[in-house]
Specification:
Strand order of the largest sheet: 4-3-5
Bound molecules: iron/sulfur cluster
Radius of gyration: 17 Å
CATH architecture of the largest domain: Alpha-Beta Complex
Helix content: 25-40%
Shape: globular
Number of domains: 2
Structural class: mainly alpha
Strand content: 5-15%
Length: 169
């Protein structure tokens, strides 16, 4: 599939949005602007190719349902920031890495294999649920929990879409 050229103006615009959203949410983009712009370009290419911002450092299938966990920000960003000070691509970095109190380190892939992800989905679908007055939904990106009949259309905390929620209870 041919992907139209991404312009510098498009990268600028998306960079500003991601930077603003990151800072508002207590996150930080990598201060290496050239490096970060390159990742933003990759996100825009994937958005144009698949219709969603699949992680630029991983291989996407092009099927949203299979790629949900790697739509940026991915399910693994926060644990990687906590443990290593950066997400897998190093698009996001921790405050300590930002002010260079901590070194940026290479990061092992946290994403389970395709077979493990499939098994986890099946177990979740068939597993017993604790009975509560309302189902409890968890945002897989930021961990926000809410008890209601259906998950919100957009996470009020991190703005992830409804399909990034999983049944928690
Ligand atoms: S947050 Fe996740 S999806 Fe986004 S760039 Fe970092 S590793 Fe990739």
């Amino acid at each position: 599939m041919t992907v139209p050229e991404i312009t510098e103006a498009e990268i600028d615009a998306r960079y500003r949005i991601l930077d603003r959203d990151a800072e508002e949410g207590g996150y930080h983009l990598n201060p290496d602007v050239a490096f970060t712009r390159n990742l933003v370009r990759g996100l825009l290419v994937n958005e144009r190719r698949y219709g969603y911002m699949a992680c630029p450092c991983r291989i996407a299938t092009g099927k949203r349902g299979d790629d949900l966990d790697i739509i940026c920000p991915c399910d693994y960003r926060d644990p990687d920031l906590n443990e290593y000070g950066a997400c897998y691509c190093a698009l996001y970095v921790s405050g300590d890495v930002l002010v260079q109190k901590a070194p940026a380190r290479s990061i092992p892939e946290r994403r389970p294999s395709r077979a493990e992800r499939k098994k986890a989905r099946e177990e979740q679908a068939t597993g017993g649920m604790v009975q509560t007055a309302y189902p409890v939904w968890r945002c897989r990106v930021c961990g926000y929990l809410c008890a209601m009949d259906n998950p919100p259309l957009v996470c009020p905390i991190c703005k992830a879409k409804q399909d990034r929620f999983e049944r928690f209870l």
